[in-house]
Design a protein that fits this description.
6-stranded antiparallel sheet; 4 helices; alpha+beta; 6-stranded antiparallel β-barrel
Amino acid sequence: MFSGIVEEAAQVVAAERVDGNVNLTVKCSFADELRIDQSVAHNGVCLTVVALNPDGTYVVTAIQETLDRSNIGDLRPGDLVNLERSMLMNGRLDGHIVQGHVDTTALCTAVEDLDGSRYFTFEYDITPELAAKGYMTVEKGSVTVNGVSLTVCDSTPRSFRVAIIPYTFEHTNFKTIAPGSRVNLEFDIIGKYLARMVELENLTPRN
């Protein structure tokens, strides 16, 4: 479980294809605090640490399902990836409830500079069936973009905007996102449960 509060934009050192999987080697400031089998969100994707290296790097493995649903397969050496370790249950929930299970990807279509802050617009493909399951945004609701917990504005059936303050811009890989960039989306889990409850209610026979 995560909160969408990115700890660090870390550098990808290596991305190695092994059969249908990709092994990512990442260098970050807290690598010496990690342990094997620990969960770390990478651009919002929950991945398991499988190796720790003496040079301050660690390795995670992304399987084909993860590669199909996310932008993890796009990462190359030198790219920045947003990292968040799993949430401690004895602290404040500063973002929102994030599972680390990316639903789909979106494309950045516009970046607007607003005297320091920025508006990013993202568009994504979605079917009516998936929208009915909660794969959508709502005005002033929460969405996770590359692992960053954000508030939605200007929500449409296939797009939304988010406002990025200077601190978030400088401390995440939002500073590398431009029109055409592909990002990971995780929609709000509460919305998914509500959509599922409505779906089951509609399937229940009525006397």
